[in-house]
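Action item from last week, closing it out:
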Amino acid sequence: MSDEERTPERVTETTDPTDADETAVEETVDDTSDEVVSGEEETDRSAESPTKTRRRSGRALAVGAVLAFVLLAASAGLTSWLYFNDYRPDQETNPAAEQVALDAAKTGTVALLSYSPESLDQDFANAKSKLTGDFLSYYTQFTEQIVTPAAREKSVKTAASVVRAAVSEMAPDSAEVLVFINQTTTSKENPDGAFAASSVKVGLTKIDGNWLIESFDPV
């Protein structure tokens, strides 16, 4: 085969210089566009940065304020819990509180066991003001049905005194006191009187800040 016959094949395989130049130009333009877009994004991020920073700072302050409030509330709750579960019960069962319960038991015991025919209604009313619960109901029925008729008919008079007393159990709203009593009883049949010594276990409960007798059991 001659050289003239092979020439067209070589021309066909050769890349057109014009196409190559156009491809190069397009790639250059694309690269330039990417750089321009990238530059615009950088500019936008730079412009938005102070705003985002302020937002983040505002959110951080808000979160910090909420956390501070929560911690303050938790602290207040813990303080209240400690007061009502530790400090207050100790305060209500300290020696001063025990003395109040002790005095209530002694005063109530004397009122229960002391009465006179001339002042029965007043004596019993005074005693009932120091009682509560089932024992109040029992005392009311007992004095009305048994003590009052006997005291008026036989002129029975009793006077009680507390020799000594001690708190055996103590809680914020309840107490138990052991009371030792001397009691003298006179009547028409025995004007000289009869003396008796006894001891009772006085159960107390606190109602509206006042210690009241809820049980009265001989020991």
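Closing note: The CA atoms of residues 71 and 77 lie 10 Å apart.
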